[in-house]
Amino acid sequence: MRETGDAADGPLQALERELHELAGGSGDAGAGGRIEELRSEIRQLRQDMFQRMTAYDKVRLARHPDRPYFLDYVDAIFDEFEEWHGDRNFADDPAIVAGFAFYKQRPVCLVGQQKGRDTKQRKFRNFGMPHPEGYRKALRIMKLAEKFSRPVLTFIDTPGAYHGMGPEERGQAEAIAFNLREMAALRVPIVATVIGEGGSGGALAIGVADRVNMLQFSIYSVIAPESCSAILWRDQEHAAEAAEALKLTPEDLQRFDLIDEIVAEPDGGAHHSPDTMAETLASILDAQLLELDALPVDELLSGRYRKFRRMGEFGE
Hints:
This protein is an alpha/beta fold. It is built from 14 helices and eight strands.
């Protein structure tokens, strides 16, 4: 499926160009009928293409540079977001954004990974790959949420935790492991949503939650397909094969009971209609928060414990 690539060209793109040209034309009386025909053809072609998607097609779509990022959802769904900075130990990490906001007049805690749109922003955000101080900042804010009884909503979108020498020297693995332990015991509802890439421990460090959602064309995996291919085949030419074997799509993970809900995306993916995507996600978050609010704290914690303890079970 070529439509997911940045430089892709084909029947779908040709139809979209024709539609764009007609829609921006001079209002020819005969154009209206053709515009409706084009829209219908585009919808049908997209449906056909997305039904034939491979796992690696979904990987590429999850990485699409126009997909809504965490801060796009913050702007669309929440009010009065106030970002907090720093881990009170080493530094602030822009790859993780954390703070407090209102959701339907209710205070909530928000934590998410942010990749950045242009080259300058991507460098500033380190392409969404957090350092240990990012995870420590996230946990600091989540602990404040627990203190003031505010639910925690996390948004996962990272290739993985940054693996440079500096993060290793500052305890990257320890920071991730500490978050896993502490989030498991956090005495407030937690909802995690994979909105793009969910890469390895870098994603899981903010992914221990009572409800785990994945957008329809997001991925969640212990390793990137390219890295898996490089390890197993000594090159990256087998990335598509690795993607199939990794079972990283929402359908795979829901079948294994590793996630709770698949959030449907608009035709063509979330980037084709960010407002619709935000509305769909908001309705699911609302329902899940209402469900979790009704649970006593002890029942909430025991349910979270059981949820993650049963992961990895298999039969022969």
